[in-house]
Amino acid sequence: MANACAQVFGCILASFGLTCLIVGTCVNEWKTYGHAGQGPVTSFMVNTGLWMECSIPSTAKQECTGFDSILDLPAEIQVTRAIMILSIALSVCGLATAILGMKCTLCLDADDLVKNKVAFTGGMLLILSGVCALGIVSWYANSVVTSYYDHESHDHEHALK
Length: 161
What we know:
Elements lengths: L3 H23 L4 E6 L6 E6 L3 E6 L5 E4 L8 H27 L10 H49 L1
Antiparallel strand pairs: 1-2, 2-3, 3-4
Helix pairs in contact: 1-2, 2-3
């Protein structure tokens, strides 16, 4: 199997990845759009996250409101929430399992084969966590871009009529 130095480096990277997953799930900039108009409020920007929506008018401070009901949310936000939480849980389990199987820990020292299998299982859980997070973030980004171009094409159609 891998040497202890590579395992420690992998554990540090996995901890960094878990931190990034948690921050990415909590941040409110999953979707951002703005409007520049005429009148007393000349422009504003809206940031939508998985947990709340924040509006930032040009003349005031940021105001955030949490989503009222889980059932009232679009399916893309519900699915993204669920898979990001699943990815965090897989990452925590994978990190704990990988730490148990590391050569530099005293856990499971009686049998090297079992220790190697535990480390391998932890690594596979971490890879699965990363694939889940990468997949759902890509899917959400695709839906945001598709939605943007759909609205843009509808606006263009109405302008032509």
